[in-house]
Amino acid sequence: MATTSRALTADTRHVLRIRERRKKNHSYLNSDPALAECRRWIEEVTGKNFKNEDFRESLADGILLCELIQTVGGFPLARINRLPTAYAGIDNLNTFFKVCEVLGLTKIHLFDVTDLQEVKSRRGDSM
After folding, report:
1. Domain regions of the chain by residue span
2. Fold designation for 33-123
3. What is the pTM of this model?
4. 61 within 8 A of 91, measured Cβ to Cβ
């Protein structure tokens, strides 16, 4: 029983270290002045607020990006997929990228879909 208690303690310490690293990375990412300005601009243009303080996580479902591209590009999108699924997020991001291409942006000017989706896979192991 003492071994199990020590193992739980070691596991608990490990989890706490992971959480502390995530918290530090989260605050570093969101303290970047460029990201803060980008967030302010997106919210001002769309009239919508980010879902939470995490920049990438708030954009991962693609909804805010689709609303942004509608406003900036003047493209009324046929639909924005608002389902809370990974597929819906990828669908929205693909729509965003297609409209960006129509506006003349090339892939070198854009981020990759995995830049936003990786956040969810890393968070999958959180406790």
Report:
1. 1-31, 33-123
2. Actin-binding Protein, T-fimbrin; domain 1 (1.10.418)
3. 0.67
4. no
